[in-house]
Amino acid sequence: EKNLSELEKKAEQNLLKLREEKERQREKLSELKHEILLKEREQKLSEALDKQMEVLSPLVPACDQFKEQYKSFAVSLDATRHELPTKDIHIGGDRQAYLDELQKQLTITQGLLTEVMPSFSGEGAKACSMLKELKEVAQKLDKELERSFTQVQNLSFEVSKEVSLHNQLLCEEKHGLDVVKQWYFS
């Protein structure tokens, strides 16, 4: 019986040791699984990053060109801001959402314009400067025409006045001064 009780105690101690060892092994296994999952995630992220770099690397020069074009667009927009009719614009809903959508649409439009008209940008700038010159010339001509029109009106007034006085003088000579006074003052 002593041996049996000692054997039972040893068996219980061995079982406790085995459980502890099993728990340690289980913890170690879960740590290893966690490390494997982390490495897999890192590998997937690295592959995704490599793919993105492969796809986006040709776009870096286009992005730099877009930045320059956007700066010139912003300068020209700022220069013509006073000419834009902003008092009648109503933005319904969330203003920031509207601006974000507008920015997205402008980016798409800019990309499309760059694709469609890459060689015409220089010609557009030349045409813009020519339009400005044409506008200045038109304004000068308008001022000159206005001055000439005023001079013609003054001249017409003077001619009408002279013709009127001449006709009055002819009537006075033909009908006499007394008859003409009755026409005007009676």
TrEMBL record:
Residues 1-42 form a coiled coil. GO terms for cellular component: centrosome; cytoplasm; nuclear microtubule. GO terms for biological process: centrosome cycle; spindle assembly. Transmembrane segments: none annotated. Keywords: Coiled coil. This is HAUS8 protein. The lineage of its organism: Eukaryota, Metazoa, Chordata, Craniata, Vertebrata. One of its GO terms (molecular function) is microtubule binding. It comes from Ramphastos sulfuratus.
